[in-house]
Amino acid sequence: MTQTIDAAVAAQGLTLPAIPRPRGAFLPWSRLGSQLFLAGQICERDGEVLYPGKVGTEFDLATGKLAAQACALNLLASLSDAVAGDMRRVVRCVRMNGFVNVAPGFHDVPLVINGASDLFIALFGENGRHARTAIGVATLPGNAAVEVEAIFEIRD
């Protein structure tokens, strides 16, 4: 039996959400050959931002990591859709970009984005390790604390 992404997420004690409705004129994912580009996802569920505000003011590092994990779960929902749930089709996570809505002086942006990176590594092992950029920004859609995008290599 093929393990699904949903089952792998459940094994981590988490729940795979429905793909969030885009807040703009874009698709949740786009494929080019074996590369799957996952559109940036904020920390939301059912259209509601779970962590609105700035990390370093409204939220501490630990909560910021939870916000990044929520983004990663939304990305995994898109990934699951793209591969019809089949984890065997996922070769590896190639790259991740993370954006953190930060208060002035907050410098632990990479540690916040570890909340997403750690989940991918837990699910895909060494194939979950990726190149990454973590950037602190002044604001994000919906005043979300975190947004994350990713590129995966997949097979047919």
Automatic annotation (TrEMBL):
Signal peptide: none annotated. Residues 9-146 form the Endoribonuclease L-PSP/chorismate mutase-like domain. It holds the Pfam family YjgF_endoribonc. Gene3D superfamilies: RutC-like (3.30.1330.40). This is RidA family protein. It comes from Halomonas rhizosphaerae.
